[in-house]
Amino acid sequence: MYHHVLIPVSFEADRNTMRAIEIGKALAGAEGRITLLHVQESVPGYVAGYLPTNFKEEARAELMAQLSMMTDGLKNAEVLVVEGHAGRTISDWAAHHDVGCIVVASHRPGVQNILIGSTATNVVRHAPCAVHVIR
What we know:
By secondary structure, this protein is an alpha/beta fold. Helix content is about 40%, strand content about 20%. A five-stranded parallel sheet has the order 3-2-1-4-5, with helices on both faces.
């Protein structure tokens, strides 16, 4: 069992987040902590001017609410929304918060991932701990 399991959450349709949570719960056992983390990508400056001034805060509040619903029935669970680049931010967050295992839902890689890579690939390559990838 792991003392702290990090589950990065992407709200894309092809991610099996609920399966990742089930596996994270099993890996954390009765005593381990679970953190659901969503990384909110930065909005480019040329786009930000067209958005309402409180866009980030409203989006963050909505994301926190959605994450909180996912933790129903989970003991020792917390939710966080942070800003940054998904792959780097997940690995960095794990390194600074004593994470024992990351459970990340992924899609089937395609040709586009050869050149730009996926978040799960980035996490697998750079995480300071064990990584369990769900497809």
